[in-house]
Design goal:
The chain is α+β, with helices and mostly antiparallel strands. About 25% of the residues lie in helices and about 30% in strands. Helix 1 crosses helix 3. The model has no long low-confidence stretch (mean pLDDT about 90).
Length: about 240
């Protein structure tokens, strides 16, 4: 068999960097060796290192800070288009520490939007939570959730600073369907303060309803700064 063509030197440098990231030697946020230091170590020119770093930065693997150095990028939490994930797991999977601040956990009157989604009268008192999820202390998502009375026993007795609402609902609920819609807003003054963003920062709003055998059981309104996370999904398509 013919021998494989040797990799170009910049590709060797990229493979070296990626290997250190994958094996945990260089976790997210790590300042990696400079171009001047890594060149002699690998026996390649600074120009070669520069090209490899530039391509890895373009791909979102590295992050360059002028006058400071090159760092392993912190990946944004990812939320599914057609799936529901535990936000704590998504945040920790990106190399950040999850924490949360419980803003409200009590029965509360249904606002019109949640009432329409659940098919209940506006103003009816239902279990409600409002929780700010953070990654390394930075706000990632403001989660407001309303539940049909009687669903997910013990919801109001949980400590959602230690575990997510998702984790409790997986244990106690029986959701069989989900629908969600995504829109963009500019935050008002109070929301901007809570999310620690300027009022000119676009935020995405995910409105999500879960169902059990066709009956709406939960409605959630999730607000997230657009530059701190991504939404992605993959689904099978019927043959064209």
């Amino acid at each position: 068999m013919p021998e494989a063509a040797p990799q170009p030197l910049y590709a060797v440098v990229k493979a070296h960097v990626l290997a250190h990231i994958r094996d945990g030697s260089w976790p997210p946020g790590t300042r990696i060796p400079s171009e001047n230091a890594l060149g002699p170590e690998l026996g390649v020119s600074r120009i070669t290192i520069n090209r490899a770093f530039a391509e890895l930065a373009r791909d979102g693997v590295l992050h360059k800070v002028a006058g400071v150095g090159t760092f392993v990028a912190r990946r944004k939490p990812r939320f599914g288009l057609v799936t529901i994930e535990d936000i704590a797991e998504e945040i920790t999977a990106r190399g950040m520490e999850w924490s949360s601040r419980v803003l409200k956990l009590a029965e509360a009157p249904l606002p019109a939007e949640a009432a329409a989604a659940l098919g209940l009268p506006a103003g009816q008192a239902v279990p409600h939570s409002s929780i700010l999820h953070r990654g390394d202390g930075a706000p990632i998502q403001l989660e407001a959730r309303w539940l049909r009375p009687g669903y997910a026993a013990g919801y109001l007795d949980q400590d959602f600073a230690k575990a997510t609402t998702f984790a409790h609902l997986v244990r106690t609920g029986h959701a069989t369907e989900m629908e969600q819609a995504i829109s963009a807003i500019l935050p008002d003054a109070s929301l901007a303060r809570l999310l620690d963003v300027p009022r000119t920062q676009p935020c995405l709003v995910i409105r999500r309803t879960t169902f059990t055998e066709g009956v709406a059981m939960t409605f959630s309104r999730l607000v997230q700064p657009a530059d701190r996370f991504e939404i992605a999904g993959r689904a099978a398509l019927a043959p064209l």
